[in-house]
Amino acid sequence: MMTKVELETFVEGTTNYFATAANQPASVGSPYIVQEGRPTVQEFTGLISIAGKRRGIVYFTASRPMLTVMLMRMGETELTQENMCDLVGEVANTISGNARRDFGKDFMISVPTVVAGEPEKIVTPDNTRSFVIPINWRSHSAQLVVCLE
Amino acid sequence: MAANAKAEPLTNGKLKLMICDDSNIIRRKIERELKIDRLQVIATAANGKLAVEAFRKEPADVVTMDITMPEMDGIECVENLVKIKPDVLILIISALSDKATAIEALKKGANGFLCKPFTDRQLTEALEELLRGAGNDD
């Protein structure tokens, strides 16, 4: 089970990502537990597997319109499917990597796996609660999902 | 293997820069936002293995290096590049923000560390500091 302090690490990482990389702060809400069913999956999802000291997954999921605007804000001119996949992977990788500041070196992160559509491919570990961190940015919404044993 | 390979300077006197990151948008961002006239991008690579191959063909003077990459990670790549060209300047640009990782990269031969996410200004400052540290500050 994750602690409030541990979740705050991911909230701070998400806040910092949008303010720094996307050149516009996001409104990052309080994490909540998924009570029933699966956590939200949008059109593009970047997923990081966590091993070592903790095990589980962290994923960032967002819509095409949001990723399009993010790429534009980052100065990217090629608004392609490939770059949207790249972006969701990079967001998940950056926030997970930044978490090592608090979790330490043994919080081992994988290279990103990207899923476009096909939410059934996102599998969270059994018997582990998923926390959703809601992200509102401009008129768009996205989610960071943290599921760690 | 071309141990201690010597880089041929560019005819315009600029230093050769190689960008290594598995993210296309990060590679393009670094290339696009590069504000240092003395640096010229000669190669980009999507993982450590490709970076070593490109570096053997044409050693760069300066390298920006991600750590978490497929095929060969940035730490192993740094070791390889330093064996080929010991005086190469390497700036790690990574999301891995724990001190142990930064220290390990520096021990393997990297010269600086910039944490992702980064602003254009932070990138420029980190590269300028890297060049200053090596006495390439004009």
UniProtKB/TrEMBL annotation, chain A:
Keyword Transit peptide among record annotations: no
BP terms from Gene Ontology: chemotaxis
Pfam families named in the record: CheX
Lineage top rank: taxon: Bacteria
Domain Chemotaxis phosphatase CheX-like: 44-135
Keyword Aminoacyl-tRNA synthetase among record annotations: no
Keywords, alphabetical: Chemotaxis
Residues passing through the membrane, by range: none
InterPro entries: CheC-like_sf, CheX-like, CheX-like_dom
Organism: Povalibacter uvarum
Protein name: Chemotaxis protein CheX
UniProtKB/TrEMBL annotation, chain B:
GO biological process annotation, one example: phosphorelay signal transduction system
Coiled-coil boundaries: none
One Pfam family it belongs to: Response_reg
Top-level taxon of the source organism: Bacteria
Start and end residues of each Response regulatory domain: 16-131
The keyword tRNA processing belongs to this UniProt entry's keyword annotation: no
Keywords assigned by UniProt, alphabetized: Phosphoprotein
Keyword Phosphoprotein part of the UniProt annotation: yes
Sequence positions bearing 4-aspartylphosphate: D66
InterPro entries on file: Bact_response_regulator (IPR050595), CheY-like_superfamily (IPR011006), Sig_transdc_resp-reg_receiver (IPR001789)
Transmembrane annotation, as ranges: none
UniProt protein name: Two-component system chemotaxis response regulator CheY
